[in-house]
Structures are given as structure tokens and as C-alpha cells.
């Protein structure tokens, strides 16, 4: 599609060559997906990564459970301050 101004014609969109850097490639997407899995500690190819994954899992379970019991069994019990 082209726009006409007075007697000159110019394209509304620049040429396709300027979009070459924004084309996606399957290899790039796969590489970023692998990187995402690695950061989420799903990639457990050795003992060190498996221990990191297990420690994150245990912290994710232990910290909320411990905070629930610590906050719900305080010595001073006031009305309307219970843990829901």
C-alpha cells in the first residue's frame, strides 16, 4: 500500500529488509526455553543441580509452614489477629 502526497508516492511501511533483525528462528526460541528450564532448576543433570532444586523445594514448603505456626501460636492472642 502506498500513500500519495501531491505528486510523489512513498510507501507507508519501510522495506522488508529493515525487519530482518526481528525475524524469529526456531533455534533461538528453543535455546531460550532451555535456559528458562535451567533457571527453574528443572535441569538436574548432576548432583549439584539436584541438591539446589531439592533445597528450593524444601524452602518453599518449610518457610510458609513454619511462618504459619509461628504467627498462629504467639503468646499474646488478640482478637481479630488470627492467621487465615
TrEMBL record:
Pfam families: DUF3537. It comes from the Eukaryota. PANTHER family: OS02G0566400 PROTEIN, RAS GUANINE NUCLEOTIDE EXCHANGE FACTOR K. This is Uncharacterized protein. It comes from Ensete ventricosum.
Amino acid at each position: 500500500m502506498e500513500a500519495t502526497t501531491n505528486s510523489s508516492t512513498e510507501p507507508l511501511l519501510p522495506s522488508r529488509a529493515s525487519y530482518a533483525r526481528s525475524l524469529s528462528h526456531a533455534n533461538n526460541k528453543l535455546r531460550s526455553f532451555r535456559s528458562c528450564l535451567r533457571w527453574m532448576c528443572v535441569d538436574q543433570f548432576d548432583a549439584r543441580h539436584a541438591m539446589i532444586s531439592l533445597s528450593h523445594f524444601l524452602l518453599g514448603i518449610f518457610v510458609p509452614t513454619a511462618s504459619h505456626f509461628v504467627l498462629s501460636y504467639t503468646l499474646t492472642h488478640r482478637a481479630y489477629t488470627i492467621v487465615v
